[in-house]
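Continuing the batch. This is chain 6 of the set; chains 1 through 5 are on the previous pages. Same settings as before, nothing changed between runs. Recording input and output for traceability.
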Amino acid sequence: MDTAPILLLAYNRLAHIQRCVTSLLANELAHESDLFIYADAAATDAESSDVSQVRNYIHTIVGFRSVNIVERESNWGLARNVIDGVTTLVNRYGRVIVLEDDLVLAPYFLRFMNDALRVYADEERVGHIQACDFTNDPTLPDTFLIKWTGSWGWATWQRAWAHFNPDGKLLLQQLEQRGLTHRFDFDGKYGFTRMLRRQIQKKNNSWAIRWNASLFLDDILSLNVGKSLVTNEGFDGTGTHCGSDNLYASNLWLGPIEVRKISPVVENLEARDAFKRYYARTNSFVAKALRRIKRTLKGDFGA
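Output for chain 6:
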């Protein structure tokens, strides 16, 4: 198989990246895959030691067809690192599989991603592949198409990445002018528009919300899984953009998922309803209030 390159973003969490790489190596296609590790530099002196430990570790990684390391000389931040890494690799190879260091992958993750990249390579209306499901909704089929992009274990092509617009202000203007903010927010069940506004205000630096909005505006679909091949372990308080709430826990599916081209290439509205139910259940005022009370009782007084 002509495998896609794997982009792994690394920073300062040694235990996380070790678990990620170990799970990746359990995939049969790992030894046929080229791994590209983009290691960011420390943002503060206090993080320098942890960053050094990660950098020492990544130079010991073997088991892939090749291991290629990019070590930043200054702190780029996750968004800039992702955008640069994805752009570089899709321009060179035409496609890429993207991982962050806090992900744990199932044994058939690489098989699924490479199969999906091949099956949908020439389907212009599909621009994203997402291998993580956190809804745990039993009504979801093994694979489905949806106008939404996840950022935990994903892949794309050069043709699709060309739709990416890093200008959050322009994306918001287009969503508002076309009256799409309500639908973008899963009919008001989750504040993706608010997230985009906060990115514009520099209150977050999310590349993912801009990628989501870019494909949404261009009516590009994502191929998603109903059985998760990825679990995110970053919700332990160590992640830059992850809290400690266990909202997005996924049950790792250890078997293969067959990729068949879905026809017609249209959004699965039943799957969209499943996402709306999930966000309605986890993002309501009552749900948020209960989580805040639980965090306070545990001594977590963060926002």
